[in-house]
Design goal:
Elements lengths: L1 E5 L3 H13 L4 E6 L28 H6 L2 E5 L3 E5 L4 E4 L3 E3 L2 E4 L3 E3 L11 E2 L4 H11 L4 E5 L3 H12 L3 E5 L12 H14 L2 E3 L4 E7 L2 E6 L3 E4 L1 E4 L3 E3 L15 E2 L11 E3 L4 E5 L4 E3 L4 H15 L12 E6 L2 E7 L8 E7 L4 E8 L2 E8 L5 H10 L7 H5 L10 H13 L3
Parallel strand pairs: 1-2, 1-7, 2-3, 7-19, 9-16, 10-11, 10-16, 11-12, 18-20
Antiparallel strand pairs: 4-5, 5-6, 8-17, 13-14, 14-15, 20-21, 22-23, 23-26, 24-25, 25-26
The structure holds flavin-adenine dinucleotide.
The site of flavin-adenine dinucleotide has 35 residues, from α1, β2, α4 and α6.
Amino acid sequence: MRYVIIGNGAAAIGAIEGIRVNDKENEIILISKENCLSYSKPQLYKMLNQDSLESIYYRDEEFYRFHKVTTMLNKCLKSVDFNKKILLLEDDKIKYDKLFIATGAKANVPQIKGFEGEIYSFTNIEEALKLKESLVNKDKIAILGGGLIGVKLSEYLHKMGKEVILIVSSEGVLSSIGDQKISEILNNEIIEKGVKLLLSTKVIEAKKEGSKIELKLEKDIIVCDAIVSCKGVKPEIFPFEKTELSINHGIKVDENMKTNIEDVYAAGDVTEVYNHFENSYCNIPILPNAYSGGYCAGINMSGGDIKMDTIYPMNSLQIFDVQMITMGLLRPSEKDEVLYLFNSEKKIYRKLVIRDGKLIGAALLGDIDRAGILNNLIRNNLDISSIKDELLNNKINFYAIPRKMREGIVKLYTEGIK
Ligand SMILES: Cc1cc2nc3c(=O)[nH]c(=O)nc-3n(C[C@H](O)[C@H](O)[C@H](O)COP(=O)(O)OP(=O)(O)OC[C@H]3O[C@@H](n4cnc5c(N)ncnc54)[C@H](O)[C@@H]3O)c2cc1C
């Protein structure tokens, strides 16, 4: 019996840990096209001003030894013959009995009319090191995209002393994660700290003028030394494109992280999962989902039977001096109840979205205390009608929650997926 894992990110690590819960002996082979141990992508920014990879490793070498994993690094999967259960690498063929796919996502880099130079991206070590090398003689950097990576990269480059121009097509940064108010607060914070933020605009074309780049926007023309695209990511599905694997916005998986093909599982950024609150399948490319999905798949591949926890988007980050946590659904429908408070002086914003008495989304800015309680209330699907005002005003602690509710939360912690 041989398990083969494609990928070495958070989902792959979750799968290894899941498999070894039930199966301590059978062979696990891990194949990854990158030539390094698993690393944490939220720490990737550190690679811009340090040389050693070690501080961003997600697991060390001992981890693979301990879990009896044979690693095949620097090997790229090209295609799969699912009927014969054979993986085709560039220069090798590997047979599997159970397959776990965790190829993650790749950068979405747009074509810019008239531009033939390099457009950098920032989704893996290779791209981060390439950007780092190019920064040596570049001062003015244009970043395209106001999502999580674009905003954090702007902050990082600004702190490194670069002049940063952040170009965003929507009215505010992080518009897909939060809501209008969150974007407004963060737009102000970014501008206050010295990043040039250009909103509601797009790059029309660009041309190289010697070592400089002239970017023509809808309303402006700017000159910069480098362009970095942070315009989101898309699932890395190329090895499976001409196969019978069911793929939509990502590889389709059920609650057990099974694909439509027998003995083939998948998790993480490469998948499309069921979002309970949106009542639809979507790609939620965040680390906790990748790890939990991998763990769930690992348990099921090795003979267990568990379902993936309720899946929803969740983000925890700090943009300059503003701390923020968002979870669940923040764009309410007409039938949802929305509670919020805003203190502009203290830069505090709290918002709760409630459906049928149950918490389905929360955003905390500035004051992020007790985010864990809110997250557990969402996960447990508990009625919060009697404590909603206390939750909004952050006047509640775990022991003030009615006993039945507390029991539900504890049960989830002790029985749930790691
Ligand atoms: C800069 C940055 C910051 C982020 N910040 C956050 C954050 O703050 N919070 C958060 O929750 N999430 C964050 N994320 C997202 C998070 O890192 C991802 O959701 C998570 O890494 C997904 O894990 P994964 O295992 O699905 O894929 P990945 O971690 O992308 O791993 C994919 C693996 O597959 C391998 N692979 C791909 N194709 C092949 C192939 N053909 N053959 C062999 N191997 C292959 C790759 O080498 C890699 O090992 C961030 C991402 C980036 C890029």
